[in-house]
Write a structure and sequence with these properties.
The chain contains 10 helices and 10 strands.
């Protein structure tokens, strides 16, 4: 079965749009998400513009602050000012940051309730205690797809150990009673491990790398990879090879990516609700 992310994202967008509209009407808030970009990385610019468009559809004012160059101290000061501004409800720092800026050190200055990306150490740590108010959007998107298509919890293999995907996703799946194995470049015999788990999540940044030898007829394969080659976009999974064997699979494009783009705004909404509850706005 094709696990179509467009369907999942479309339904979530409608729910978010309705909730945000209700908050605007009830509290007279003009929701704002502040994006911060340092440098001119083309991919960052594309992603920022995509968030601006999606935010507009949801009734959120997404503004982009671009710096050609900035020191760590000045960037942290800017973030602290945004934290203190009650009119700004969410903050995202576009990745990558040019050296010598360190992404984690920068984002850890964002107030946890304005951390729309879910990347602060505070919100990452919250996942360990089943507090999922704000979670990394890609990890949340994987869970959304599994739950939407009613994939039953069982054994899951994640080929990725990053703070963006593998580690937070492991916590989210553990919170849902999965038994999780995290694999990475140093793992021995990944193919065997992948076949022994009914859910396989792949995020390795290698186009079409995973073939049918990694799966069985009972496998559910979630492809997180987005790789560009000219005008072609492909995942980390060889779709033609694996789809003929696996039970379920996500496409690229049209799978995890579009749900991730929507889940960013779920984080934003949850953070805004917290700010209303605590009378911070």
């Amino acid at each position: 079965m094709l696990l179509d992310g467009k369907v999942v994202a479309s339904e979530k967008m409608e729910r978010l749009k309705s909730e945000i509209k209700g908050i605007i009407e009830k509290y007279g808030i003009e929701p704002e998400l502040k994006l911060i970009q340092v440098g001119n990385d083309p991919a960052s610019t594309i992603y920022a513009n995509s968030k601006i468009k999606r935010g507009t559809k949801l009734g959120i004012n997404v503004t982009l602050e671009k710096f050609d160059n900035i020191t760590m101290d000045k960037l942290v000061d800017y973030i602290k000012d945004a934290n203190a501004n009650p009119r700004i409800n969410g903050i995202m720092v576009e990745s990558p940051l040019p050296p010598p800026l360190n992404f984690q050190e920068v984002v850890d200055n964002i107030s946890f309730y304005k951390d729309t990306d879910g990347m602060t150490s505070f919100n990452q740590g919250n996942l360990y205690t089943k507090n999922e108010m704000i979670a990394p959007a890609t990890a949340r998107a994987v869970v959304d797809i599994l739950e939407y298509y009613k994939i039953q919890p069982g054994n899951a293999c994640i080929i990725n150990r990053s703070a963006v995907v593998g580690r937070p996703l492991a916590m989210l799946l553990l919170n849902r009673d999965y038994t999780v194995t995290l694999c990475h470049s140093k793992t021995v015999d990944i193919k065997r491990i992948a076949r022994e788990n009914k859910v396989l999540v792949v995020a390795i940044g290698k186009p079409d790398y995973i073939d049918e030898s990694y799966v069985t007829s009972e496998s559910t394969v979630i492809d997180v990879g987005i790789n560009y080659s000219g005008n072609k976009i492909s995942g980390d999974v060889n779709f033609d090879s694996v789809s003929n064997k696996a039970k379920n699979i996500t496409p690229v494009p049209g799978g995890v990516g579009i749900v991730t783009a929507t889940d960013i705004f779920e984080n934003f909404l949850n953070g805004m609700k917290y700010q209303i509850k605590e009378k911070l706005i």
